């Protein structure tokens, strides 16, 4: 998080959320699915800036600006309004969101923006909100918002409210590819139609990074089959990433359509992203790194 000058501008990175695995364990009577997921964040993200103002306003810029609402239905706006209502009545802020992440893409863009808005406004408005209260507010906005607020590498449980830190993945190179087709999470869960996966209980007792990476190899994303049925290009993305030299793990994130690959070597990651763009000019493809614990809360 960066803060500048007397005009008081708070600058926060809303990092892309990557589900390194995602096991769908069941469905509650209220319709929410219960999950087990290992989540981490990339250095790449949307950029949110906030400055003091008399009311709450939002402007959106960046390569994916056209794909998000600019009114009060934007999750950044909703987060600002909710925080003001619960913890800072009458306070205002002018928010600017640089939308660098594709939308409806399985990388939690809206949830990351909401969590970033909380962090920015707590700083801008000098608020002292108890962590448990903030987590409850986050869950009110969406199941992925608590983990985006937590940052780091996290084991997520329940419907998203259980966040347990795991060993960090220290700046690992990662490539993201997206075929440019938005995919609504609800549609993918409907297509899953109750074909649930199973828990990998060992995830809860992981002690080291290498143990975590070994275990992830035997995990899955249970939403891959329904997402591929809806958007066959996801299969092409997974095949492309899985065949790159030096790849350690290739998988879909969230409900898709973004797929990721982890590499040991940054040069191999950059070569894979370049190759993806050359062979599939219509894909979004980037090489970045997993954000370190220190970087999780810094500006973009
Ligand atoms: P998840 O991985 O959490 O399922 P996602 O990456 O698939 O999320 P988002 O990019 O968060 O999906 O977009 C989901 C929906 O939320 C879209 O229909 C979009 O219009 C809406 N939305 C509202 N605000 C935002 C925002 N700030 N950024 C992205 N989408 C937003």
Written account of the structure:
With 300 residues, this protein is of the alpha+beta class. The chain folds into two domains: 2-166, 2-Layer Sandwich (Ribosomal Protein S5, domain 2), CATH 3.30.230; 173-289, Alpha-Beta Plaits (2-Layer Sandwich). Helix content is 31%, strand content 28%. The protein is built from nine helices and eleven strands. It has helices at 75-87, 109-124, 131-141, 145-150, 185-192, 209-217, 224-230, 233-242, 266-279; strands spanning 2-4, 9-27, 33-52, 56-61, 93-98, 154-157, 162-165, 173-178, 247-252, 259-263, 284-289. The strands form two sheets. Strands 1, 2, 3, 4, 5, 6 and 7 form a seven-stranded mixed beta sheet that branches. It has a four-stranded antiparallel beta sheet with strand order 9-10-8-11, covered by helices on one side. Strand 2 (9-27) and strand 3 form a beta hairpin. The model has no long low-confidence stretch (mean pLDDT 95). It binds adenosine-5'-triphosphate. Adenosine-5'-triphosphate (ATP) is lined by residues 68-69, 74-76, 103-111, 113, 144, 185, 254-255.
């Amino acid at each position: 998080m960066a803060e500048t000058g007397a005009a008081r501008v708070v600058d926060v990175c809303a990092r892309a959320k990557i589900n390194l695995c995602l096991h769908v364990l069941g469905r509650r009577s209220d319709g929410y699915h219960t999950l087990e997921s290992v989540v981490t964040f990339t250095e790449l993200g949307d950029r949110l800036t906030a400055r003091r103002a008399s009311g709450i306003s939002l402007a959106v810029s960046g390569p994916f600006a056209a794909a998000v609402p600019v009114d009060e239905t934007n999750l950044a706006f909703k987060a600002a309004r909710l925080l003001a209502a619960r913890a800072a009545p009458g306070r205002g802020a002018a928010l600017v969101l640089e939308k660098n992440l594709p939308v409806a893409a399985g990388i939690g863009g809206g949830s990351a923006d909401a969590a970033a808005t909380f962090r920015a406004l707590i700083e801008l408005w000098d608020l002292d909100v108890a962590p448990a209260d903030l987590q409850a507010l986050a869950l009110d906005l969406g199941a992925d918002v608590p983990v985006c607020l937590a940052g780091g590498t996290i084991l997520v449980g329940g419907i998203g409210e259980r966040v347990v830190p795991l060993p960090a993945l220290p700046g690992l190179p990662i490539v993201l590819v997206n075929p440019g087709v938005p995919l609504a999470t609800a549609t993918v869960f409907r297509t899953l139609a109750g074909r649930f996966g199973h828990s990998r209980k060992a995830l809860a007792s992981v002690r080291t990074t290498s143990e975590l990476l070994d275990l992830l190899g035997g995990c899955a994303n249970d939403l891959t089959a329904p997402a591929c049925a809806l958007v066959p290009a996801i299969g092409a993305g997974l095949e492309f990433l899985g065949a790159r030299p030096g790849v350690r793990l290739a998988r879909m994130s969230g409900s898709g359509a973004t797929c990721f690959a982890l590499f040991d070597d940054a040069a191999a990651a950059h070569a894979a992203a370049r190759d993806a763009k050359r062979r599939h000019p219509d894909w979004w493809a980037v090489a970045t790194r997993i954000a370190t614990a220190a970087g999780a809360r810094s500006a973009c």
